[in-house]
Amino acid sequence: MAGLQELQFPEEKPLLRGQDATELENSDPFLLAVDTDWKEHDIETPYGLLHVVIRGPPKGNRPAILTYHDVGLNHKLCFNTFFNFEDMQEITKHFVVCHVDAPGQQVGASQFPQGYQFPSMEQLAAMLPSVVQHFGFKYVIGIGVGAGAYVLAKFALIFPDLVEGLVLMNIDPNGKGWIDWAATKLSGLTSTLPDTVLSHLFSQEELMNNSELVQSYRQQIGNVVNQANLQLFWNMYNSRRDLDINRPGTVPNAKTLRCPVMLVVGDNAPAEDGVVDCNSKLDPTTTTFLKMADSGGLPQVTQPGKLTEAFKYFLQGMGYIAYLKDRRLSGGAVPSASMTRLARSRTASLTSASSVDGSRPQACTHSESSEGLGQVNHTMEVSC
């Protein structure tokens, strides 16, 4: 048990496979789209155009799932493996899915002109209400990774009524100090941009192992993402300020995320310390901390099955998806409370509630408290 305490916008055009020459030249299983019903949009916002890819119309009163990728990536490189996972598609058929690409980071993006001022992290967050308004979403469930997680957290702090829940992977709520800033500058002088970004995405162990995954991402980051645009995004992310959040009751008038949050990090990820720190600053009664065993810097790529199952429990805890089909059982649809690998691996699952389209459900998060842990704190260690 002691170990558990340590856990921690308006032209529409179909996005067809193979339509982009650059994508074909750099084809990779996690980059190619499986569906042909995704549509691209360019949304006008107060801080410039935002490239968005969306599938499906709004589903009644349900929120949209809105994603934001990490620096060095785009929605394809970051999320295709996860959203193309078969069990995940059983979930997403109940929701409209909206992928947001940070300015200039999408496949085939034109290079920004000289002197272009890349939006600050706060301005990136302030661009998102334009997306919500354009599509008529009432609110969203955000899934962000790294820099994208920071943007979505900032979005939820500024526009809390638009956010129903957040899944934040590899989030670092802290700005860089002078030492870290200098180290980043030095690294930029001695390493190529893709290699510098790789050290943000992957742990040293993963980089040293020089795996096929790391090599594939090195190639894709260098060939698919416009390097000048990426440099601007990278510089802005590294000049971010601390997220102004504190656990309720720790300081007067503490600001915090008001929606249910699931924090996710691999047990071999460079962002582990940042995620642990973020967990300490959030309300433990509405926060789930998922530390994934046998996972590195990109758990949505290396462990999509485990992450899908955790996301299912997270949605059920907010009152969505009363049951899902489980392909592993011959009985077809099974109750959401059925015992799964995640539930067996502890420490807690979120309670399931009936899914309704007529009214916005009340968020209801719950976890079993483990003996000796004291205050309830949602922690899941997925080691199976």
From TrEMBL:
Coiled coil ranges: none
Transmembrane segments: none
GO cellular component: cytosol; membrane
Subcellular location: Cytoplasm, Cytosol
Keywords: Cytoplasm
Entries under Pfam families matching the protein: Ndr
Stretches with biased composition (Low complexity): 346-355
Biased composition (Polar residues): 362-384
Highest taxon of the lineage: Eukaryota
InterPro entries according to UniProt: AB_hydrolase_fold (IPR029058), NDRG (IPR004142)
Positions of the UniProt region annotated as Disordered: 1-20, 346-384
PANTHER family xref list: N-MYC DOWNSTREAM REGULATED
Family the UniProt entry places it in: Belongs to the NDRG family.
Record protein name field: Protein NDRG4
Organism the protein comes from: Molossus molossus (Pallas' mastiff bat)
